[in-house]
Amino acid sequence: MTSGEGAVSQADTLGPAEARWLSDLEIACRGDGLEIVFQPIVDTARGTIVGYESLCRFPGFVEKNPEVWFATARRLGKSARLEAMALRLALDMRPLLPPNCFLTLNVSPELLATQEIRSLWGEQGNLGGLIIELTEQSRIESYVDLEPDLDRLRSAGALIAVDDAGAGYAGLRHLLALKPALIKIDRELVQGVDRDEAKRALIRMLGMFASQVDAWLLAEGVETVEELDVLASLGIPLVQGYVLARPAPAWASLDVDVAHRLASRSISSPKNTLRNIIEPAKAELTVTAALSAFQAHPSLEHVVLLEEHNRPVALLGATEARLGVVSPGMRVNLDTPVSQALQRAITRPESGRFQPLLVTDNAGRFVGIARLERLITALSDQFSAEN
């Protein structure tokens, strides 16, 4: 037992609230009142589920918040027992895991050396197909102390994952010291990535780092299709979040529309086409609805005006929506070469020359916008690669 697992000897030495907690923890550590749910992890290239993250829930108690439970367990010296029980319940489902799927399990780093956790791995034998995610519940005091247990896990076939990549210096230290096989992007970076160029740039950097150290990159907390589209366009291989599927008893399936949305992106095409640089944009069917969107979201730059068959009509700014001015935007097919699209764009009248292009599929339906900045960057990258 580690120093963080000091036992509470007598319930009557505690206050009433903590005594109740101690009683509830004893029940939970026996596996009563707990439920394990599984949230799908999705391959953005194929639009299929490739893994599940196991998560512990507490439906049999008044307090439902898992973070409160695990924090209280640490304070009262029950964290190793509680985490071991949560892991045991998840591992009981391992034989039923769908084919070609991995299972991720959350473990506090300081508990890896406890007898409860070590015994659990020993009972499993081969740990192939398991990814052990080191959580951020407490600070890692010594990476050197973790190495023997991490080496044993790897030798048994498990992979190691770290959470909250990009969340400050501590997150970067984790990446350098732990050399994980799976890197989970901090959900703060994922939130609103479709509206934040700086977040996209940082995620690109993490992607470059992951490729250099032979690690997978997983974006968690994806809650909108706009975020999903941007992450897929950035080449993030794995995603997880409510827009894809919520945590549920084994084994949740992927939303059909979202699966189709991802799969439709995987159609092979040359790297120098608009397909690879498009980004989502708010779309509405009327100018009135567009104006309401600007009023509800002051930071919104553009709204695409669509006709009833989802074909783009115009790109509106807040001023145009307020005045009811509708000028046709430039529509371009998503398989148009970047160089050709840029040549067409600069032939427009000076007043609208630098507006984003309206990108359509082969049926003329709106699929996203292409900003001039990205056209120029893509063309520059292509030139650098060829020279």
Automatic annotation (TrEMBL):
Record SMART domains: EAL (SM00052)
CDD domains: EAL
Positions of transmembrane segments: none
Keyword Manganese: no
Gene3D superfamilies with a match to the protein in the record: EAL domain
Domain EAL, residue spans: 18-261
CBS domain residues: 325-386
Keywords: CBS domain
Top-level taxon in the UniProt lineage: Bacteria
PANTHER family named in the record: CYCLIC DI-GMP PHOSPHODIESTERASE PDEF, SIGNALING PROTEIN
Name assigned to this protein: EAL domain-containing protein
Organism encoding this protein: Arthrobacter cryoconiti
Lineage of the organism: Bacteria, Bacillati, Actinomycetota, Actinomycetes, Micrococcales
